[in-house]
Amino acid sequence: MKRATSFFCFSIASSYSYAFIGHTSAPRLQNSNVKIHEQSAETNAFDFEDALFLERFKRRVSSRSEQTPKEFVTALLSTLLTPHKPAANWGYEYLYTSSTEKWQYVLRRSVGASNSTEEDLIFHSLASSMERENQQFGILVGMGVDDGSSAPIANISRTDNIPESHGQKEYYMIEFPYDTLDYHDGTAWVECRLRNKQTDLLLVVIGWSLQHSGDRWLVDGMDWQDFREKYRPGIGREEWERICG
């Protein structure tokens, strides 16, 4: 079989204003300052706990060693479906770090980023591109099936305040029609199909070129064929960077 290829003040009163306010106001200023310090400490504690949770989450994800190619693809699609949980742009970070250097280059090129671009900016740019309206890859990142059979999901807010309806329930089913093609050289190819969960209509066929590195699989290429009427169903294959960018 031919291999499929390609395709994130409070300003303290100055001595002048202090003199104008008067000595009697000094205790009030001190109390306010204490409250500010208390609030700052609470905020720092929250940020620390949030960062600690994210770090534990990353370790738990990265510890999923010896996944099969199908398990890897399923985990990747599941993470992309809620791209801003547990943190903003986390799904795009997961995609980027789960890719080979070759596919990372494709992702950077798709959003006009250079090799020296900071990764956080790359993740943010991927989010801006994939989450815009009428974007055929939006189906992967919680934007709905976008096939005319149901109302589209509202745009994603790139903060932690994501609408409760967004990404909480999968709107497509993942189907693996064939066994994984393992080349026994550290590479593999697997096909998955996304079907509308309500109508069972075929939406997209994705061929994943994978490469094994260490104890995990990485994305090395993606072959995308769209069957939604809105995106010229079944006519050839579009390269990722031509549509994502």
Can you offer a commentary on this structure?
Helix 4 (90-97) packs across helix 6 (119-130). This protein has helices at residues 15-21, 26-62, 69-81, 90-97, 101-110, 119-130, 240-244; strands spanning 172-175, 181-182, 187-196, 202-213, 216-226. Mean pLDDT is 73; it is low at 1-43 and 150-168. The chain is built from 7 helices and 5 strands. A hairpin with a 5-residue loop joins strand 3 (187-196) and strand 4. The two termini are 30 Å apart. Strands 1, 2, 3, 4 and 5 form a 5-stranded antiparallel sheet that branches. With 245 residues, it is α+β, with helices and mostly antiparallel strands. It has 2 domains: 17-59; 68-244, no CATH class. The radius of gyration is 24 Å and the shape is globular. This is Nitroreductase domain-containing protein.
Strand-helix topology:
Layout: H1 15-21, H2 26-62, H3 69-81, H4 90-97, H5 101-110, H6 119-130, E1 172-175, E2 181-182, E3 187-196, E4 202-213, E5 216-226, H7 240-244
Antiparallel strand pairs: 1-3, 2-3, 3-4, 4-5
Helix pairs in contact: 3-4, 4-6
Task: Report the end-to-end length measured between terminal Cα atoms.
Answer: 30 Å
Helicity range of the residues? 25-40%
- What structural category arises from helix and sheet content? alpha+beta
| Count of alpha/pi helices | 7
Q: How many strands appear in the DSSP assignment?
A: 5
What's the structural domain tally? 2
Order of helices and strands: HHHHHHEEEEEH
Which residues sit in consecutive blocks of at least 5 with pLDDT less than 50? 1-43, 150-168
The whole-angstrom Rg is: 24 Å
Give the rounded overall mean pLDDT: 73
Q: Roughly what fraction of the amino acids lie in strands?
A: 15-25%
The backbone outline, from C-alpha atoms, is globular
User: Describe the biggest sheet?
Assistant: 5 strands, antiparallel
Protein name: Nitroreductase domain-containing protein
Organism: Cyclotella atomus
